[in-house]
Amino acid sequence: MDFFSSRRVVTVILLILVVLNLVLLGVLWWQNFSPSSPDTGTEQSYSSKKSFFQEELDLTDDQSRKFNALRKEHFRGSIPVFIQIAAQKKQLIREALAEEPDVDVINTLSDHIGRNQAILERRLAWHFHSLARLCTPEQRDSLQLILENVTLKPRITARKVIRKQVTISRPEQDSTEHNPTQQQP
């Protein structure tokens, strides 16, 4: 007599599988439909959490709301410029990889990208100014440190140099640079 051909063994195995399926379905149903769902607790704790700026700058609730509104407005206004830069960079890459790249097209695209980048930098500066206007003098000092850390982060290797008060002066030009026809001794 074969073990699996026994009617009794097959019936017991099927009953065990049915019970396990019912238990599993019950657990899943209980997790999704129980009144004390963990999701509601996390939503409440999330809404009660302080934002990064609110915690770091010790902002009031009103300041925090205004900060968030300014940040949303800034990012919404900057997205079109980012999209334009991305499209221009694609064109620049296509032109650079062409068999015979057109130097004028590359220069024009580079200039357009530079102008758009300058627009972003101006928008960012005015955005920082708007944020600073909401802060107390003590909060402004902390905001300055935060913004310096955020804006300088990608430039890790140059970070130490940039953080120092560095003044860039024009190099003194040799008189021969002004008049190339003049002979040097």
From TrEMBL:
InterPro entries: Metal_resist (IPR025961)
Record keywords, A-Z: Membrane, Transmembrane, Transmembrane helix
Pfam families, sorted: Metal_resist (PF13801)
TM stretches of this protein: 12-30
Protein name: Periplasmic heavy metal sensor
Organism listed in the record: Prosthecochloris ethylica
